[in-house]
Amino acid sequence: MSDSDLLGRPLERLIGPKTAKAFEEAFGYLTVADLLTHYPRRYIRRGELTAIDEIPVGSEATILAEILSVKVKKIPRRKGGILEVVVTDGQAKLLLTFFNQVWRERELKVGREGLFAGKITLFNGKRQLSHPEYQLIPDGDNVDGAIDEFAGRLIPIYPATSKLPSWKIEQSIEILLDQIADIDDLLPAEILESEKLIPYARALRQVHQPDDLQSASDAKRRLTFDEAFILQLILVKRREAIRRLHSHPILVGKGRGLVVRFDAALPFSLTAGQNRVWQEIAADLASEGPMYRLLQGEVGSGKTVLALRAMVAAADSAGQAALLAPTEVLATQHYRNLLSILGPLAEGGMLGSEVDALRVELLTGSIPQAEKKRIHDGLREGSIDLVIGTHALISEGVEFARLDLLVIDEQHRFGVEQRDALRERSENAPHILVMTATPIPRTVAMTVFGDLDVSILDELPQGRSPITTHVIPVLSKPHFLDRAWVRIREEVGKGRQAYVVAPRISSSSPAKRTDEKSEDPEKERAKQMRERVARLLAEELPDGIADGGDGESMASVEEFFEVLNDGALSGLRIAVLHGRMTPDEKDQTMSAFKSGEIDVLVSTTVIEVGVDVANATVMVILDADRFGVSQLHQLRGRVGRGSEPGLCLLVTRSEEESPSMQRLQAVASTLDGFELSRVDLEQRREGNVLGASQSGTRSHLRLLRVLEDEAMIIAARERATELLARDSHLDTVPALRDFVIRRERESDTAFVEKG
Ligand code: ADP
Ligand code: MG
């Protein structure tokens, strides 16, 4: 049996069907590899008793403690009784209670040490464990304990359940370890050497049964590197495979001069940063293999302009280009923006239009069926040059004559499937440009988007004004809120506009993280996918909102519209915007706001991404603690887009000192999106970030931490790139090759199953 077969063996053959079933139920484990990667959370040493006081009530704990006293309490008129055992760490005490198990008195002797596991509860103000699982440590009195297996060794403490306490897990793993004692190493020897890693078999043994803490830590390092390395191998391989596809080169400046005309129509010239990024994009576009690039940049840094320019370049070289936007509001905005820049150049297909003019269309779920059909036809025949749309663009029935460039706005709202779906629409692979305004730390980009190249726009165009952010703690300083409304009045008095953002639509509606209605019922699935990706990535909301939390007390758009209209903001022109309005209503409201017919827009997060009204200078975010750090950063990017400074007020009912207050303070203290996305990541289970990894390798990452293991991820990326450059099919390392192929196949099916 080969080594990889060994790791893939079903658990029941080694540890018996009953225990195997328990592992499946508790953790979903099926194979030897699954259980071997169930790593200890920590290690404890005999004699080093667990500090009882420090264990939070309600947690599942495994503690090492000494028995202090044992007492049997009779229950009146009943047989049996309650056995009460008090254990101690030398200072604090913990009560263990066993009902009708008085016989345990025989083994639970005063002075014995043992591991006790269960849920810590509070009874009469005292910590206790009722019916704990336990394992006594053999000691001198115990004649049977001839093998003093506990003496001096480190005891692994595993994530456990009541059916599978830590020591049971330990026993099962021990059985597996004996089987794999001389398993081959998948990693090439030179990588082990250059990264100073211990062999695989030893690492597995030492992580579960360490000789000492140093060995445990060496073992973890080795196993963490494996996770990073395999992931990077898959991503780099995929990246290389994509680059080997064929696409139409787009040679900027070689066509009819449309790009020059586009530039001439821009009311500004590109910043140095935009020019630099443009060079990167242009080089990609000119190549035979497809561009596959992520363009990161703060809100307003001028990404969209570059994307539109690339689209015009594609049309100029006789291809088609599509822009996929996450919401209808945004798609419409991009469409209008493009039309206004192109002017007569966008009147292709119209009567009397000039010869070179491009035909530009907007395709969203809400446009009438007949119109849709007309656009579908135009895309198929190639008479449409540029199309901007929402998910309707990737629905069934949309075919392109020659899609050469696909721009995806706000990556976080799309999964890898959407990218693939569009790529498969065409004989030649389109160039793909993904734009995101949520800054992603380098190693996250390397892991979550590891198959894309990354460009960063790190400066804002000239004349952009800074945004000032303040937290308004309504609990301690309620009068500050009144001042917020006064500020809005002042700004409106100066001819400016304002946003008021609330976490939900009406007081009866459940909290929702994204309130865009699905435009096309068939695309509900795509929407769910998008939401899943969004949830897992950096623009996450705090938990409360995802599960509805104490939704009752959250500010709502409708409620505040009324309150402000009748009160603090009466006399101003106020309108609402949210996802329950029809696309037409939304569109009309946005246009009216843009043209200055509305002073104050009370809305949900529909305005979160990309909405661009330069005259808006104030934003008040109600119950701001309900939003994620990155999302708040996105939201406030809506103000200060013109020459006037922007002001963002984060209203919260959080307690001073509370974690949510700290998050808001962090947002108020910096405008650096990268810094904030770090804060965001640090506060969330990072596993989730990697879990959403577009490689689909969710279940395989147990140790890797995107921030902590930054250096290792970078090293793994380098080693993976080197190895593949030398041996693109991994033929010199067949065992590794087979492993990677299996992993890739698993991730493919994982996607199918999850769908
Ligand atoms: P992003 O897509 O990164 O949010 P946009 O491309 O939408 O940014 O640009 C934001 C605003 O800044 C738009 O109004 C755009 O016209 C303007 N803009 C873009 N590039 C420049 C520039 N180089 N100089 C001045 N204004 C610019
Ligand atoms: Mg944008």
Largest sheet: 7 strands, parallel
Number of helices: 26
Return residue spans where pLDDT drops below 50 for at least 5 consecutive residues: 141-148, 511-552, 685-698, 749-755
Which fold name corresponds to the CATH topology of the domain at 467-670?
Answer: Rossmann fold
Main CATH class of the domain at 467-670? Alpha Beta
Instruction: Indicate the mean pLDDT.
Output: 82
Query: What would the principal axes of the Cα set say about the shape?
Result: globular
Strand content: 15-25%
The name of the CATH architecture of the domain at 467-670 is 3-Layer(aba) Sandwich
Notes on the structure:
This protein is an alpha/beta fold and 755 residues long. Helices cover 39% and strands 17% of the residues. The protein is globular.
In terms of topology, how is this protein built?
Blueprint: H1 3-8, H2 12-15, H3 17-27, H4 32-36, E1 42-45, E2 60-74, E3 81-88, E4 93-99, E5 113-123, E6 126-130, E7 133-136, E8 154-157, H5 166-179, H6 189-194, H7 200-208, H8 213-243, H9 258-265, H10 272-285, E9 292-297, H11 303-316, E10 320-324, H12 328-342, E11 360-363, H13 369-381, E12 386-389, E13 403-409, H14 416-423, E14 431-436, H15 442-448, E15 453-457, E16 467-473, H16 479-493, E17 497-501, H17 524-536, H18 543-546, H19 557-566, E18 574-577, H20 583-594, E19 600-603, E20 616-621, H21 629-636, E21 646-652, H22 659-669, H23 673-683, H24 686-691, H25 710-726, H26 734-754
Parallel strand pairs: 4-6, 9-14, 9-15, 10-12, 10-13, 11-12, 13-14, 16-21, 17-19, 17-20, 18-19, 20-21
Antiparallel strand pairs: 1-8, 2-3, 2-5, 3-4, 5-6, 5-7
